[in-house]
Amino acid sequence: MRIVIALIAGFMFGAGLIVSGMSDPANVIGFLDVAGAWNPSLAFVMGGAILVAAPAFALARRRGRDLGGEPIELPPTRGITARLVTGSALFGVGWGLAGLCPGPALVFAATGTPYALVFVAALAVGLILAARIGAQR
Description:
This protein has 137 residues and is an all-alpha fold. Helices cover 72% and strands 0% of the residues.
């Protein structure tokens, strides 16, 4: 049952990324180009996501279990660290340069577009390097 719930959630997330335009790098670059031809549509997508996610996280924190009954662990609030700032900066630079972040990139890669496949390959290399660097600490 756990796998079925994960598949349904993943499908819904991917469909939402496609319908909202988040898996289209041109839309993302247009949203990030606040000094040029700014496209504000993704601000509404993100605002809607926050409106849905905030009560869901509050419920999850209270229940301590997901809808399938499995225990969940939400990260504790820890404040701002150098690692957080570095990771956020790398994510933002990558998002701005490529117009993709990991979730939408996986959806876009499913189309077989070389641009997306190269991005996902680079993402995989980055994840492996990050795991190795983290393991050395």
